Amino acid sequence: MNIRNRTPLHRLPIFHVIRVQALMVVVVTLVCGVLFGRVAGYSGLLGSLIALLANVFFASKAFRYFGARSSKAIVQSLWSGAMGKQILTAALFALVFVGVKPLQPVALFAGYLLVLGTGASGLLLMKKNPKH
């Protein structure tokens, strides 16, 4: 028997990490836009959004189930979330490279990597007890 987690995404502890990533999207966009110009600004924005959207997708899939009886469903949802995240990331990069001209690839990948790194290090920002 799988126990479905009915907690909305904004109530899960991972939402704090997603919120910090969203803040990084704004920072990357402003810094790239002000320092390097308009093309770098929206290139950084697109790269940042690719990472953020993929992480939101993963979080919504990964935290679908909970409890010891749902261990098989938890593993399957983690796997499908990780695979979906990779496919979504590749598809979004392909769309950006095909559909956006002019584009500054350095700003695009910098924005992507900064938001991705924020997510990885954002786990350190979470409290020991996520219920408080």
UniProtKB/TrEMBL annotation:
It comes from Pseudomonas mangrovi. The chain crosses the membrane at residues 12-36, 42-66, 78-100, 106-126. It comes from the Bacteria. It is a multi-pass membrane protein. InterPro entries: ATP_synth_I. Keywords: Cell membrane, Membrane, Transmembrane, Transmembrane helix. This is F0F1 ATP synthase subunit I. It is found in: Cell membrane. GO terms for cellular component: plasma membrane.
